[in-house]
Amino acid sequence: PQRPKPSVDLLLRSAAGSFGERLIAVILSGTGTDGAEGARIVHAAGGTVIVQNPETAEFAQMPASLAPNAVDIVADLPEIGRILGELVSSVEMPAEDRPPDEGRALERLLEYLRERHGVDFGGYKRPTIRRRLARRMVAVGAADIEEYRRYLETHPEEYRQLVNSFLIKVTEFFRDPELFEYLRQEVLPLLIEEARREGRSLRIWSAGCATGEEAYSLAMLVSELLGDEAGFFDVRIFATDLDEDAVNFARRGVYPEGALAGLSEEQVRRYFVEEDGQYQVKKQVRGMIVFGEHDLARRSPFPRIDLVMSRNVLIYFSPELQRRALLLFAYSLRDGGYLVLGGAETASPAGDLFEQRHRQHKVYVRKGERFLMPPTVPVSPAPPRMERPDGPRFHAVPGPQGEEHRPRVSEEGFLSQVPVGLVVVDRNYDVRAINAAARGLLQVHGAAVGEDLLHSLPEEVPYAEVRRAIDAAFREGEAAATGEIAIQNAREAGQRYLRLVCYPRRVAGDRGPAGTVMIVVQEVTGAVATRKELEGRLEELRTESERLRRESEAEATRQRLQNERLLEANRRLEEANRELTRINEDLQSSYEDALLSTEEAQAATEEVETLNEELQATNEELETLNEELQATVEELNATNEDLQARGTELQELARKHEEERREAEKARMRLEAILSGISDAVLAVGFSGEVLFSNEIFRRTFGDGEPGDPDAGRKLGRLLPLDEEGRPIPQEQTPQARASRGETFEMRFAARAGGGLRRFEARGRPIDAGDTAGGVVVIRELPEG
Fold it and tell me: Taking 80 as the threshold, does the pLDDT of residue 145 lie above it?
């Protein structure tokens, strides 16, 4: 937090601000997206951006994260060093060392671009043009401008790369925030309300959308204004650009974090999803936009548009092409529709069709009557595309009097006699021929020939499905068909259903890719009605079958529940029987125990009576002996009798002592058996601390617990008692010492064993058995923790 985080974006942004067009940024293999935003800023500042080919990079995420309109050259790693050297040498060459005819060759190239493509770069600074042209020359390996112009003639796709390099498109989300705020407050609410009131869709055209930031910004504004209604309101935003790579990038809707700098945290959270350091536009916003490649100089406009956004596109056009683009916008806009241009642009070339609404933001409103679609700019036929075999085989014709026009007219004359709807389109989806039946079925008005078929179709026709069928016919070389398309019947109330079958057409004897596709328009309204009727009947049968199935399932469920209840009752009865059997067994056992106890008590009573009888007999015998002793006169006899009586008494005492010893031994053995079954350690000590007895647990835990052990009173076997802090316990406070004094106590202590500290709890009770004194200690080990 106390120092800046290293960043490639920060480095490139700083360098772009310092060096501008003299900066060359190289993006190599790597992960993440750090550097993508910096490269965009370098390109916007006029610098050169070279990217390692993602297909050969070890880690493609970094080079692939750059927008295509921010990249000047894509090359494999071994070629980048050569490209850098050629770039520097071509730019830094002094003016006096340049070839004398280089300036004339540059002017011829710019004139070629203006004549062929209608894009005028004559007002650009020559050093800037030369620097940016050098990038493309190095990229294609052209030695001079003339060689590059010849390359451009045989490789039409290079024209797009060159124009993109000259234009240096700068785009970002909500670029020019004041303009977007004006649209939010003044323009879009009015257009949304008009569309809602008239029950139609809201249609917006972003012409020159580059990588899509402007189109997505418009979609965010509309979504914010619609609120909860956004999911139900029909919104179409057409986003077009001449750069195919930029359009494909915009379609993905994935941007690096740096590209979102103009958005608030709330907008990022609401409209984007973060994934692996990049941010993807949510489906709610993406679903409003239709991206497409479109050339304002050659393609038809989009009809019934409410708002056209075309900022910083016209400034590069020649005056003729500027007027055509403005006429296209005027043709597209509804009455009262809005046109927004860039800060350096104006609607003056078609001023009779637009009325200025806001001078600073260059906002205009469509006015005036409707007119026919403006013609395309006359250009020379484009050369064949040598490196794109899947490209169109047919190109724009020079005019209605050209040689290529007569076959089309004769073809239309033939098609007009066919009662089936037929349309012929080329690879650009432009109509080459169409008959009256197809016009009526598709509700195509106007000339249509030369126009984009997809944009000429009614709104309810899913043009994406038609486009897929046409593309499949071109790609597979086999017939492809759409599904059933519902279209409003212009003459009668209700709908009619069409099916379009696309057949690839080849020139006779040509085995290459098809040049055009013939679309057969079939009306299948009757078949659809029959199918729907059959589907209705089938749905009725399904409903009845479903009802019977539900009733059957309900009956099966009822029977299953009843069986489950019976099984449960049976289970409970079995449990009750088992419980009764167990109780009877317990009662029988208790009865037998009672009988046994009674018999033992009776035997004990009889034994007591026997002893009483024996004692009575002994008493009587003693009385008899006493009488005899008293009766004898002779002292010797009395003494002998006394000695005899004493001997008898001593024998009896010895016998009783032996019996008592045996009983004590038995008692000790019983006590040891009891103690051995106890899980706690037990130790009994005498008054002087000697061990009276101990159990196996005590000896196994502490050892040295044998009877008579003189050390038992000083320590627990081999373990010295410690307090809970780990200090030795004083001798007089040890469990043995306290037990020998006959104390009743409870205490805890610790002892070291096995490399660790074990904790115990001791309970002491006194022993008071006549001449035996001391105490018993019960020791239990405490669990850890």
Answer: yes
